[in-house]
Design a protein that fits this description.
By secondary structure, the protein is mainly α. It has helices at 3-28, 40-88, 94-122, 127-142, 148-173, 181-200, 207-231, 243-248. The longest helix is centred in the first third of the chain and has 49 residues, at 40-88.
């Protein structure tokens, strides 16, 4: 099932629940009930709960969005570091240069075509990818520069290799969910309480009030969907992609 279909169903479901509960409650309400006589303390509590929950939702969205952006930055940093290595080894002898570039292309191709699927489904990187990156490291570090020009390029290559390794480790750490389960329980419980307080105000079955209550519930459902979607940066609808690798290593698309 598509993530966007889940979003539409969740928003429609939230609206339907509010409308059905309101209609049923209106039919079962006593004939002498006056919705205009809602105590001021209930209105104050409803406003206070809504504000607090809005702040919590905002913080949650900001947190998962930051994690999502950081995950994309890790991919960009890793691809850029490997691209720099591939470009800087041009000062090396042809056989060494071609071997390093071939190993980099093999690693980038493996990440895009194989490891990315593992990250999407299992939320983790592979040992094979680690081995391929280690092979690149060995190619770079084991070569002994024979000229001053090669020696000047050696240390920057080591720095870029370290940057690629660090970015890969950061990518591995960001594959899992960002929000802990206890936070999700808090968000879902807060949503139920916030929507439930709407009924505490004794809303009437007028078209305007039903539309507003439905839109209010649908908005909360949409916010929760956004948090859920961003919570796993590599495996859901608005997921981090391997575009940096494809842009910097166009020959791996074949």
């Amino acid at each position: 099932m598509s993530d966007w279909l889940v979003l539409v169903l969740a928003m429609l479901g939230a609206c339907a629940v509010v409308v059905i509960v309101t209609v049923v409650r209106h039919k079962r309400a006593p004939e002498d009930e006056d919705p205009s006589e809602t105590p001021d303390v209930i209105e104050y509590m409803t406003m206070w709960i809504g504000v607090v929950y809005a702040i919590v939702l905002g913080l949650a969205i900001a947190g998962v969005w930051e994690a999502h952006s950081s995950a994309q930055d890790h991919v960009q940093a890793e691809a850029q570091a490997l691209h720099e290595i591939s470009a800087r080894v041009r000062v090396y002898p042809p056989d060494v240069r071609d071997r390093i570039r071939d190993d980099i292309d093999a690693y980038a191709s493996y990440v895009v075509h194989t490891e990315w699927k593992r990250m999407e489904h299992d939320g983790q990187i592979t040992d094979r990818g680690t081995e391929l990156l280690q092979k690149i490291r060995e190619d770079v570090t084991d070569y002994q520069p024979k000229t001053d020009f090669e020696a000047q390029a050696y240390q920057p290559l080591l720095d870029q290799m370290a940057a690629a390794d660090q970015a890969r480790n950061a990518r591995a750490d960001s594959t899992g969910a960002t929000m802990p389960p206890v936070v999700w329980w808090g968000l879902l419980t807060g949503a139920l309480i916030t929507i439930g307080m709407v009924f505490a105000l004794q809303i009437r079955r007028t078209r305007r009030e039903l539309i507003l209550a439905g839109l209010f519930s649908a908005t909360i459902a949409f916010m929760l969907f956004l948090i859920w979607d961003f919570d796993a940066p590599y495996s859901r609808g608005i997921a981090v992609n391997a575009e940096p690798f494809l842009n910097l290593f166009p020959n791996i698309t074949s």
